[in-house]
Fold:
Amino acid sequence: MTRQRKVTFAPLPHPQSERKRNKTATAAHLRRKGFRQDYNLGETLRNTSHMIVEPRPELASRAADSLKKHDCAFIRRSDGSYSYAILAYRSLAPPSEDEIDGKNRSGSSERSLEEVMAFVMDTAGSLKVLKREQWSRLVRLVSEEEAVVPAKRRRDLLRRANGNEKDSIPPSITSFVPPSLNQDEDISLMDVLNALATEL
Structure:
């Protein structure tokens, strides 16, 4: 004996309202704090003018506190360099065992939660979790000035780099055909670009 199930579907959204919602979502994504087209996730800071350095620790902490989920920032690495990262989430976390032991020795038995921010540090998904007390030392906001290189300037730079002022305008779309699966040879992006350049 088979049982029949009743399935109902929600009404489809109005196409125009769906387009409007997608446009709004895209615009919000582009307005994310700290987004720069000239940096990739995990890339090391190239110029100190690309980050905002606050003059006092309390201002730096307040600036870091202004970050929201998916905002970008420069995060100080253990070697002292800064990497372009994205805020994955903010959360409350219990203190580490070392901190609990230290507090117990000092007479306090309180296990309060502390605010943390978790940043994705590179394309491999490495995560760096920072406690509030570390924000002023390790988090720097991104300067969004000159973040977008105008298309004409980019073309001029490419022409100068190639040494050809007239006919080295890059294509607007580049396609990539991956090597066959049975090919044992490694191929890099530079190999593909060199092959494309010789075909032109």
Summary: The chain has a mean pLDDT of 75. The radius of gyration is 25 Å.
